[in-house]
Design a protein that fits this description.
Elements lengths: L1 H28 L9 H14 L2 E3 L5 E3 L41 H12 L2 H15 L4 H7 L4 E2 L8 E9 L5 H11 L4 E4 L1 H6 L1 H9 L3 E4 L12 H19 L5 E2 L8 H9 L3 E3 L3 E2 L8 H11 L5 E5 L9 H16 L3 E2 L2 H5 L6
Parallel strand pairs: 3-8, 4-5, 4-10, 4-11, 5-6, 7-8, 9-10
Antiparallel strand pairs: 1-2
Helix pairs in contact: 1-2, 6-12, 11-12
Length: about 350
């Protein structure tokens, strides 16, 4: 009996001396707003373990002596008693020891800031899209719709009239023959001439005018206008205008860009300088050196009231426009039989031939 009393006294003494270290880690690690761990339960477990064995098993599974040093010893406070027992679920987890600590390290800055940095980019991207849209090149048909008073492809469909037009002259090979065929059929046409060719063959230009045909400006040397700088583009038109005015006595109002190619800035320039751009809606494709039957077929297949018909009276030395010349007579006969009247472009569009 005396032995048991001594054992119980020793155990009580141990529990009393170890009470502070057992509870201190939890109290230090958690806010005072939360409850302290169940010390009574911890003490009972310690008594039960001591009664069963002279050793205490820690959380790692290793055994150490149950005779711990007194609480006053420096090593006593260093004993890691907390890991031997899982923290109570009623306690709030510590920000520094639990996975829940990550969102508490000012999460708004780490998440919201990248979002905020992205938000300004949205209107910028939208504006960039608008800039790209505004800079997108318009097609020829779109330019005609946007600038109806400056860019024409055809005349009114309410009148059964058509206009024959001839590009790339004058030369001495085919232009005189075209003039002969038109004269024989008593039809007036419109000639879009090159400044360089007009300067080389002024007599042919004068014949065109004397026989009642209209002259239009087709640039100086048949350059692709959209590929030129502003200065070169303007020089192509203005130099030709100067040559023609000296030869025919007026500055032509009508402009036909080579290949029919033109951009919006050039359309605006023509509008500001009182020109009228005239392309076509019927292409004979005679520049391919086609036969007269092929030329005739291409034109008849496409012609409608108000049509502007494209043909050529000059071109490269390798081009043979004999089919064009031979198709003029039959074409005029067929269209007249179908009720069409032949007029010049200014008559078809009801505009002046000069600026």
């Amino acid at each position: 009996m005396t032995k048991r009393l001594w054992s119980f006294s020793i155990v009580c003494l141990l529990v009393t001396s170890c009470g502070a270290p057992l509870t201190k880690p939890f109290q230090d690690q958690n806010s005072t707003q939360h409850s302290t761990p169940d010390v009574t339960q911890t003490s009972l477990e310690a008594i039960r373990d001591f009664a069963e064995s002279p050793f205490v098993t820690d959380a790692s599974g290793s055994k150490r002596l149950s005779m711990l040093p007194p609480a006053s010893s420096p090593s006593a406070s260093a004993v890691p008693t907390a890991p031997t027992r899982a923290p109570s679920h009623s306690l709030s987890p510590s920000p520094t020891l639990t996975p829940n600590s990550k969102p508490k390290i000012n999460p708004k800055r780490s998440v919201v800031q990248p979002e905020a940095s992205k938000r300004p980019s949205l209107p910028v991207q939208k504006n960039q899209g608008q800039i790209r849209t505004s800079q997108k090149k318009l097609t020829l048909s779109q330019l005609v719709v946007k600038y109806p008073n400056t860019f024409k492809l055809r005349g009114s469909s309410q009148e059964k009239k058509v206009a024959l037009t001839f590009d790339d002259g004058p030369d001495t090979r085919f232009t005189p023959k075209v003039l002969d065929a038109l004269k024989a059929n008593q039809v007036k046409a419109t000639f879009f001439v090159l400044g360089a060719m007009a300067n080389t063959h002024p007599d042919v230009i004068k014949r065109i005018v004397n026989e009642g045909h209209v002259i239009g400006n087709h640039s100086y040397s048949h350059e692709n206008l959209p590929k030129l700088s502003v200065d070169k583009f303007q020089n192509q038109i203005e130099s030709t205008e100067t040559i023609l005015q000296n030869l025919i006595g007026y500055a032509p109002k009508l402009i036909r860009p080579p290949y029919g190619a033109i951009n919006e800035e050039q359309v605006k320039w023509f509008a500001d300088h009182h020109y009228l751009i005239v392309n076509w809606n019927v292409d004979s494709l005679d520049w391919k050196s086609l036969s007269s039957d092929q030329v005739l077929h291409n034109i008849m297949q496409q012609t409608k009231p108000g049509s502007i018909i494209l043909q050529h009276s000059g071109g490269a030395d390798t081009q043979d426009l004999s089919g064009t010349v031979q198709a003029i007579g039959p074409l005029i006969s067929k269209l007249k039989a179908a009720g069409y009247t032949f007029v010049t472009v200014p008559e078809l569009l009801h505009v002046a031939k000069n600026k």
